[in-house]
Amino acid sequence: MSRPTSRLLEWFGVDDEWERPRPAIGRRDVVLAASVGAVSLLGLELVRSAGGFEHTDVPVWAQWLVVSTGAALLLGRRRWPLVVASAAALHMFVAGVTMPEVMGQISLQIVYFVALLSGVAWARDRRAMVVVVGTIVLFMFAWLGWQFAVGSAAQEWLVDEQGTEQIGLFPQIPAAVGISLLVNAIYFGGAIVGGGVSWRAARQRGRLEEQTRTIAAQAGRLREQAVMDERLRIARELHDVVAHGVSAMGIQAGAARRVLDRDPDAARTALSNVEAVSRDAVTQMRRLLGTLREGVGEGVGAAGAEGDQPHPTRTTDAGVGDLAGLVDEVSGQGLTVTLDVVETQPDAADRLPRGIGLAVYRTVQEALTNVRRHSTADTVSVVVRVDESQPRPYAEVEVVDNGRPRHGTSGSGLGQLGIRERAATHGGQVDIGPRVTGGYRVRVRYPLVATS
């Protein structure tokens, strides 16, 4: 097989495994066939009224039947494309032999064109399509060739008998047949090429849809995996929180036992500390377990799912005191990060529960990661506020930048979901989104009052 032939067959998808879905006959097909039929019959009668069929002796009902059946072929052009294309070719031949003036109407020519185009565009078996369409084209051009041969013979007879003069470069009858040949080459070629283009476009759309489904499925699996990884990390943090609390309770209880007889006040203080530590540990344990009990499909995400963190720290003992190192690590390369820790009382940030301190650190870590990956910002402000003087004390972290979203870098959104999950673990409130004055803000407030 020659290279041009193989490339042509490849263009028509002869060896392609993709099959275009075959829709059932629907409202769209019915409306198209009915509209074409109505317009064709109207055009038929207009031409008849103008005297266009004066050489046609076929009954009117037969003309109506030919036009109506031609339009009806369009009903199954997508469902049975090759059958319709073959029927349209047969229809064209029979109508052309018996009533050529009717067959030449523009409405029927459109029907034949659409039928052939649909055969190329909708055929599922591409090899069968090449055979059927090739046969139709060969038959039609053989018919035209026969007309050309007859036309040449008729021209010779006219010249011999009547001495007709040649006006142009070509004799009159062969010239007329040649025009028909050229017009039909454009006609059939346009239908075949148009059908091929339609099929290739449909294949491209089908592959894009398949890729979209695959990407969505992979994203779902990655999302679930990220959720599980985050829950495992929370479980480790739960272990550390509970282990720390139990260890502290053991130490305080041991101290209370030793001084119970000789220093009751010190024993009471130690037991009070045991009570406070136990309540704090139980509260944090309930929150963490509540998060872990949520289903994977309930919309929770994982911090760190957006990719590499800006700081390599992955320990479970990070807190507000480690933010300075994190900020130093992120600053540079066109990004300036400032850190302010606002405390209403001295060392208030150091007294934060370990779980909340870690949540503040992770929130800043994820927010700075998002700025690096998805924003045009060159300045970021990190503010941590710890207020123990209010009736409802709180710890708040706010990360504000001055950038806009960078095109082509949209993330999965799991990082922000992770921030919300951590906040929910500690009963916090989250405010994430663009600011009216420009830039982007991530703000989370954690209550410091133990809630049962």
UniProtKB/TrEMBL annotation:
GO function term, MF aspect, one: kinase activity
Cytoplasm among keywords: no
The keyword Nuclease is annotated on this UniProt entry: no
InterPro entries per UniProt: HATPase_C_sf, HATPase_dom, Sensor_HK_TwoCompSys, Sig_transdc_His_kin_sub3_dim/P
Gene3D superfamilies, A to Z: 1.20.5.1930, Histidine kinase-like ATPase, C-terminal domain (3.30.565.10)
Positions of transmembrane segments: 82-100, 106-123, 130-149, 169-197
EC assignment: 2.7.13.3
The entry's keywords: ATP-binding, Kinase, Membrane, Nucleotide-binding, Phosphoprotein, Transferase, Transmembrane, Transmembrane helix, Two-component regulatory system
Protein name, entry field: histidine kinase
Catalytic activity as recorded in UniProt: ATP + protein L-histidine = ADP + protein N-phospho-L-histidine
Stored CDD domains: HATPase_UhpB-NarQ-NarX-like
Domain Histidine kinase/HSP90-like ATPase: 355-450
